[in-house]
């Protein structure tokens, strides 16, 4: 079999790292800004193109598409879903639930992580609209509950698990159609459906999904397909996360494919999932992509740093441009099946990684007398002020000015020709502007006082 190129890529919010194993055994490593529209449309595609061009001299076809016939496989971990959740840049979506359960996700599970905290924060919601559908099934508890004549009027159905249910209210198809059309007219193209007991009896969910697709919704997340579990609250949260993130993830995957000849047909493309496993790109979805990038980091350091002889646990600290991830490995991968990321609880297998919206690209603000960091990120475009693109002040700029970040050891990929180092002078000018604004505020609000230096 002819040897081909193999690529492993980490596509973060700020930087993209490309690792390539060439047919002759040569190893190539390349770092690019994840977004740099002046020079390329997609960083992973550009990284692959550059390496193929330098190694073979024939990376693209006559239409400008990368020739993937030279590539055996591509494996990628990405923080596209993570960052969309952290920055709330997912798809506008609606939540469909049984009538009377409109606020079930707003109420949540009433958990109190800090039982004496007087400032109780409700779980965050991702949906923009709620559609209540008048349908209901209840468990048939033969011999345990007498329903008399009423039960004889109800149809009995059997769930996927063998449990039997009464259909106390059939689905009104026309009412569902009208309700979903009203939501569609508001510009919503994604919908999540979570009904009571649909973990086992999902006939109503399937019908609602069918109607939504007929109407023209671009994405439909049915809870029994996303995560078939008993509890409707975590099932609803996870379905909403899937509907919120999957369109965003799919758009990225489609855009990535468009850069290659024949949309990457014939090339094996795998994406890292939150649980540390790989999945074909057509199966890559939002609910299982939250920790795609961080999971790759856990697998990487677990393989390269943990030693069976010493049996010492290893702590992973991965600070990127948008988020920071902390994890632990002690010989086996630690998984959780319910986790909260950026205020959203998701029921799906994930490596035990704690993610916070604080990275090198976290923006620095002065608001109403307070110093604020993030959660907004400068990303890769325009990036921090020192990236020479007119970006805002960030944690990276602060570390650069304080001497904690040394430009000579940082990739020289900035400026119009992508060959300049970080611009410390630009960071200093931005801090000088911030200093003037702070002192002007102090002078106006407090009538003078101590002048702050930069």
Automatic annotation (TrEMBL):
One of its GO terms (molecular function) is 5-oxoprolinase (ATP-hydrolyzing) activity. Residues 6-216 form the Hydantoinase/oxoprolinase N-terminal domain. Pfam families: Hydant_A_N, Hydantoinase_A. Residues 235-440 form the Hydantoinase A/oxoprolinase domain. One of its GO terms (biological process) is glutathione metabolic process. It comes from the Eukaryota. One of its GO terms (cellular component) is cytosol. InterPro entries: Hydant_A_N, Hydantoinase_A, Oxoprolinase-like. This is 5-oxoprolinase. It comes from Rhynchophorus ferrugineus (Red palm weevil).
């Amino acid at each position: 079999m002819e040897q081909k190129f193999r690529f492993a890529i980490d596509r973060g919010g700020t930087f993209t790292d490309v690792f390539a194993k060439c047919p002759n055994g040569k190893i190539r490593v390349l770092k690019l800004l994840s977004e740099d529209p002046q020079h390329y449309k997609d960083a992973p595609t550009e990284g692959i193109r550059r390496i193929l061009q330098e190694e073979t001299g024939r990376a693209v076809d006559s239409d400008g598409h990368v020739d993937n016939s030279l590539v055996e496989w591509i494996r990628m971990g990405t923080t596209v879903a993570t960052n969309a959740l952290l920055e709330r840049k997912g798809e506008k979506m609606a939540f469909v639930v049984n009538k009377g359960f409109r606020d079930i996700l707003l109420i949540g599970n009433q958990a109190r992580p800090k039982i004496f905290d007087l400032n109780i924060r409700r779980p965050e919601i991702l949906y923009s609209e709620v559609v209540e559908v008048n349908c209901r099934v209840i468990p048939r508890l033969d011999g345990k509950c007498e329903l008399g004549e009423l039960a004889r009027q109800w149809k009995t159905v059997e769930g996927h698990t063998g449990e039997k249910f009464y259909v106390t209210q059939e689905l009104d198809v026309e009412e569902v159609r009208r309700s979903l059309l009203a939501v569609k007219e508001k510009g919503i193209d994604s919908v999540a459906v979570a009904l009571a007991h649909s973990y086992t009896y999902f006939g109503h969910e399937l019908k609602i999904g069918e109607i939504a697709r007929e109407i023209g919704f671009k994405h439909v997340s049915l809870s029994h397909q996303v995560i078939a579990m008993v509890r409707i609250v975590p099932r609803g949260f996870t379905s909403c996360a899937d509907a919120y993130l999957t369109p965003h993830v799919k758009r990225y995957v489609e855009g990535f494919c468009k850069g290659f000849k024949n949309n990457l047909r014939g090339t094996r493309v795998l994406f890292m999932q939150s649980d540390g496993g790989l999945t074909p790109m057509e199966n890559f979805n939002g609910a299982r992509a939250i920790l795609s990038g961080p999971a790759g980091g856990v697998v990487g350091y677990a393989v390269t740093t943990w030693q069976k002889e010493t049996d010492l646990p290893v702590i992973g600290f991965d600070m990127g441009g948008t988020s920071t991830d902390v994890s632990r490995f002690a010989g086996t991968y630690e998984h959780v099946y319910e986790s909260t990321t950026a205020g959203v609880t998701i029921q799906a297998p994930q490596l035990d990684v704690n993610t916070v919206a604080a990275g090198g690209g976290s923006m620095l603000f002065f608001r109403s007398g307070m110093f604020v960091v993030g959660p907004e990120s400068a990303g890769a475009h325009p990036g921090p002020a020192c990236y020479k693109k007119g970006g805002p002040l960030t944690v990276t700029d602060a570390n650069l000015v304080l001497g904690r970040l040394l430009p000579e050891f940082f990739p020289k990929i900035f400026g119009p020709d992508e060959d300049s180092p970080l611009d410390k002078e630009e960071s200093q000018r931005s801090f000088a502007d911030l200093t003037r604004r702070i002192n002007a505020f102090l002078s106006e609000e407090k009538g003078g006082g101590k002048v702050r230096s930069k």
